[in-house]
Every structure is written in structure tokens, then in C-alpha cells.
Fold:
Amino acid sequence: MNTENEKLNIYADWNPWHGCTKISPGCKYCYVYRQDEMYGSSVASSVCRKTQAFNLPVKRKRDKSYKIPSGKIVFTCFTSDFLLKDADQWREECWQMMKERSDLLFYFFTKRIDRLEECLPADWGEGYDNVLIGCTVENQAMADYRLPIFLKLPIKHKSIIVSPIIERVDISEYLTDEIEEVAVGGESGVEARLCDFEWILFLREQCVAKDIPFRFHQTGARFVKDGKIYRIPRGYQLVQAAKANIDYKIGDYFMPEKYAKLSENIIRENSD
Structure:
């Protein structure tokens, strides 16, 4: 049995730039803005700037090995949006690093899926095998706008991220064989909007009906169950979601088993 630390050890983080502009209702209480305020950032959260970790995927240790070892699932650009227009001048270099590190799986979520086509590298083709893209939606309007665009795009690994969920959402018509995972979560922060457990169960029903992996990753700060509102401290939002025990076809690493197998295959190929 894997321990919690072993489960988390499959992941790495890479934030090549920081800062983002708000574009839709889900951005209203953005955690990046809250964290910047908490740590007293001297630069506005809406200002995009490169970080010192920009070239992390290709950085090496003294022994010449990569700082991020083979097989990791790399959460990419989680303090911004990978398709942010303000970062257009830097993205090509990031695509090149992703291609060079074909021994890693890069996973980014975006609210700007309508920009993907104009942001793709020339050799993208039907998609890079090692790039996983999640289309983020937060309400029905954003689902109905973004998901039809998402389904038409050439991407090898597609997931739908319903987070922060701020109303009941029906995505059943978009759950095609291309979708490899649906993840859902409530909103964190003092001003968080309500997350109703009934909305979560409704999404789960849709995924089970289409046999698509489903993950409930966090309750959010204001969680509604059986008509009662619960205030969930930040440190317990992941734990309480896990205790609900409603994930479907999710493996030991909190992701679809397919992604863990992709990671294991990468490690095996690079150790031969």
C-alpha cells in the first residue's frame, strides 16, 4: 500500500511565470491574489512576470542529472494561466522544454482554451504525448462556451476541471471518449461562494454514466450538505473531500490510473 507521501512523490510543480488577469466568474476570489496579499507581494497579482523557476524542467544538479527526475507529473503554471496573452513571448521556450523533457508529464489547466490554437508550437500536430490539458469551467455558461472549443482541439490528453464550482453544472453532452478525467472542487478563502454536495454528486452521476474517471478534490470553504452550511478550514478541505469516498476510477496517485501508468512507463523507458 502506498503511503500518502509516496502518492504525492509522483508530482512536481513548475511555475514559469506568476500573475494573471481575471476573465470570468470563477476568478472573482482567485487564490493567487489572496496568497500574494498574504505574503505582501510588492507587485500586483494582475502583472505577469517570469519566475526564477522559468527553466526548471531543464535545470540540472551537480551530478548532471535533472532536478526534476523522470516520470514526474508536473503541475504547470498553477500561479497563472499557461495561455495568458501577457506570457506569449515566453511560451515557445516552454513548449521546447516540454518537448525536451519527454520523460515528464506536463499538466496545465486553463480558462483560456479559446487561445490554445494560436499558442501552439509549429510541431504540435495532434498533440504532444506528454502534455495533459485541463479545461477549467465554473458554471454552466462557461461550460457551454469553453467545452465545445476544447473538444475540437488536437490534444492527446484532455480533462475537465469544474473548479471552483459555483452552481449546478451539466456537462453530460461534452463527456466524450476524449475526456480522460473530470475533477471538481469548491472555492477556498474567506469570501468563498457555496459549494453544494448535490452539485458534486450530480457531476459524478454524469461521469459514471459515461464511465469517465471522476475526482472530488476539495470541498471549498463553505460546503453545503443536506441543506446545512459547513465552514471547512483550509487544511481540511482536501481531507473532507477524500472522506466523502466518491471518486470513480481514480488510482493511488489521486489521478486516473492511466496517468500513473504513463508515468511508470516513462520511468521504465528511461531506466533501460
In short: The helical segments are 4-8, 31-38, 88-100, 116-119, 140-152, 197-210, 237-243, 257-271. The CA atoms of residues 66 and 204 lie 39 Å apart.
